[in-house]
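Lecture notes, unit on protein representations.

Consider one protein chain, 419 amino acids long.
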Amino acid sequence: MCIRDRNVTFSVDDVDVSDNRVYVKAGETIMATIESDDVSLNDVDVSFSDTNGNLFTNVNVEEDSDDIWIADFTISEDDENTEIKYYISYTDSNGVDYDASGDSNIFIDTIAPTLKQLTKIGTTNDTSPSMVFSSDEAGTLTSTLAISGSTVVIDGNNTVTFDNLSEDTYSSETITVTDVAGNFTTLSITEFTIDTTDSTLSYVNISSDNLYDATEAIPGDTIELTFTASEEIETPVVSFKSGDDNITHSVTVESDISDNTWKAYYTVHSSDASGDVSFTIDFSDDAGNQGQQVTSVTDDSIVTVDTELPTLNTVTISSDNSNNSYATLGNEITLSITSDSSLNEPTVVFYHSGTIVTNAPTSYVDYADYTEWDISYNITSVDAQLGGLVTFSIEFDKRLNGLSGNQVVTVTDGTSVTV
């Protein structure tokens, strides 16, 4: 800029900024050069102030030569943000006084941007993840990671997208925002992980809590599927089939010890179809990588559901009396049964005229397949005194899995014994 016929130029750290609006930060030096074309200058006085007229006190004014004077001062951290104004006066060698004042077009900015991370990347399979941060100043963005897209930062919320990151955990990365004056703030990015590897299930087992056999299940038993993943996974989706029918009642899925090991279980209902239990497991890891659906165990485990109640094919009663429909003191009464399934030892209670026979019956079984049983007892004097028609109740269950049949209290062939 010119003061009458005298030239005044401004520079920041020796860089001419006379024709530009510039911002300066703490530590930078503002210099005004006053130069005369044809006369020497005397009594040169230069002062700088903020927009409120407060003078900067650390101004140094020196003569560089007869016709060139230099005034400079260095911005300190304590200086407030403001435009720098100037006042220049001098007397030339002809005795003429000159003075000028005005705006330097130089603005002090000693405050670095304030940054805050607003979203976290976490664990993801996106190799170009984004995060949102805020800045209270506009500026330029840089990072320890490659950036995809614009590096222009606005005053407000900004989104930064990182470019083509490899699979890894990133724990020491930063972004930096530098304002127009050169003040900068560096923000540490919360640790995140890029995971592009699909998880797998290394162990899958199915079992039942049946009292007799972990490969069998009857109504009331719990069937449990246990599986271990190669890494932590989100809650998996597990479905079961019993025979060919879908299990529609409640299935519980929960982690066991850690998010690597899970179990899914349900209780067998009497309405479930009989047959082998099958399943599907759908799962993904914390990064969103979808594992391949699993439908088989990794060992030889199997569970078969049995909801078909055992039945008694034949039930007959007789006495060893010459007339096997009657019994007296000392006679043996025998209840003979056959079943459609191998049975555990049945529980039989005999009655005389509705009164329980107290002497315990003796059971005999065809041990070939446990489907034929004889249950006998001898008539005592007490039994003989009671007299009357002999009745009974039979409780029975499958030898394989404990599934109980319906109580039986009648014969199948019309036989009877009266004491």
